[in-house]
User: Fold this.
Amino acid sequence: MPNNKPGQKRRVFLVDDHPLVREWLTNLINQQAELAVCGEAESRPDALQQIAALKPEVAVIDIALKGSSGLELIKDLAQLQPETAVLVLSMNDESHYAERALRAGAKGYMMKRDTTRNVIIALRNILEGKLYISESIATAIAARYAGARREPNSLSVQDQLSDRELEVFQMLGLGRGTRQIAESIGISLKTVQAYCARIKEKLGLSSATELLREAVRWNERAE
Assistant:
């Protein structure tokens, strides 16, 4: 992290496709004596452009963005803007997304339903060069690894699928059609269909009906 001059506020950038969330975070962060929101975006391309220009010290990013995935943005920033640390603020407490975000380069992961106090604690920890993972996420990750040790030869869905395959799989389980998924994450219908074919192959499923059924079940277990 760059060294700030005495009295200079630490710059925070917000990436979320919900204006109300950005407004809430802006009000919360700007109330802190040492923090200030320097910009905001709702999509991956806009975020990359603005972060390159503004060079914030921390970017607060949601996993679900307009037309893309927050995981892809985290990977981009790790390559293009490594001096900007990332805190993921997600709607869900799914441990598999937390693990993937941390592997992609995020320095923290927490949920939107967490307390405002913990959001500020997370930002301050990250600005000090520390990691921050909410207690419930840390517990879920520990439980998953404990289960893996008990069944060392079993691979979970999230272990078998790539980031984008998992994103498509989750959206199928939420009742989205392939065309909706394509429009939502900014890829072609043909590409979504190719992802579905690979998911079926990896999970040993023989039909689109089996794929949909398994996706729904998996989403119910992840809630």
